[in-house]
Amino acid sequence: MSKPNLQHASCHSCEVRHTSLFKSLCQEGVKSIDDAKDCTLYKKNEPVFVEGAYPKGVFCIKSGKIKVFTIGESGKEQIIRIAKQGDVVGFRSLFSEEPYRLSATTLEESSICFIKIEDFKEQVNKEPDLLQAVLKELSKESGERAMFIKTMAQKTVRQRLAIILLVLDEIYKDHQINLSREDLANYVGTATETVIRLLKEFKEEEWIEIHGRTIELKNIQSLVQEAEF
Amino acid sequence: MSKPNLQHASCHSCEVRHTSLFKSLCQEGVKSIDDAKDCTLYKKNEPVFVEGAYPKGVFCIKSGKIKVFTIGESGKEQIIRIAKQGDVVGFRSLFSEEPYRLSATTLEESSICFIKIEDFKEQVNKEPDLLQAVLKELSKESGERAMFIKTMAQKTVRQRLAIILLVLDEIYKDHQINLSREDLANYVGTATETVIRLLKEFKEEEWIEIHGRTIELKNIQSLVQEAEF
DNA sequence: CGAGCGATTGAAAAGACTCAACCACCGTGG
DNA sequence: CCACGGTGGTTGAGTCTTTTCAATCGCTCG
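Output (structure tokens, whole complex):
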């Protein structure tokens, strides 16, 4: 690892802390995490962790976005979520004592802090609020995944694309969804060509605008209706 | 609720305890749970909990099987898992502080113990091993659901049916899979007719035998190969 | 004995995928 | 500065899986 280490990054001044898993930490807890963490700048398309490896800690996204996905037998990725600044990822496997089942790769230049297992678990044991937050996060994640299973099983590709666009619109704060067509297809669970064709239809309906590779939602209401979401 | 209460059921003598979430509990912990629990006999096709309701406790399956599912806008069920004796269900929502996202219904006559939120959480707080078990269970569940999403997105219906048959074969100890064609379809995420047609194909390949509604796997290896699982 | 539900079959239609070709943009190196 | 190569985006056509709808069958239960 020869990634640049951002010495100056401090949890105390980190604006995403207040929206992250760590929002309930006391001053002392913040200090512990701050001392333990290691902040790294990732370029676009760099792996953060890889399925099959054993987790050594958790990742807190200070800025940027990553895709969390798993690779099928055919080599096709299935994106499970897009994580953005303030999200803490990779802690699921810590508790299941399994290797990672998912991989994560940056979608844009990202600044990501790493907290070692021991330090993270120590804080979880010390701070009941953090433990509650972890339990809640895991539970929410599990519930959302059950809903995603239903979506995959029961919705048409067209509806799924509408849903994913709505989800992404919440993630891209400037409302300029900026994902490759392939990533989009791998999130929706379809072929790239199908995504392109459906996007064209949505554009013709004037539900979206397409600026090069970025997508801007123009009629949320119609998309919601299409998605029956 | 006027369900028969099985006074005699005791956690100490309960053979499923050693395989359940509660396997690590000490004598004292077992006693607490034993005093707190309330064991009920459910007939076939009775609801255990319903999505949208607020959870009041967790359910431990002493005997029998239940389907855990969610209902789509079209009214079609999507089965997320089949829980069997020894499984503890319904605790996800306890920690996410949400209403149930899933429903559960018995598939056969089942004896199910209920433990109230307060009593369960008390034990979780008191017994670090139980807490670890809960964290591990939630984590495993979340990981498995991610894999299920990938399966839904990338596998053909034929492959998904093969996978589900393999999963069910692990659950039905006598290897006589006993689910309605409709439930099977709602698990695989397809139409009932498709399931029937594919089962016929599997039968012709001599991968399975069909005895009325029950299915017996005859060639696990071929099914695994078909599933690329 | 009839009602009704679950299982089954058939035929037609639709949605999505695959494959192949083409285009557009971008950075590189000559 | 421009030709080149490569990647990602787009389009078209044909194919195939899966769905839908309709009808039939078989069994159980009142």
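Residues 156-158, 190-191, 193-194, 197, 212 of chain A lie near DNA strand C (CB under 10 Å from a C1').
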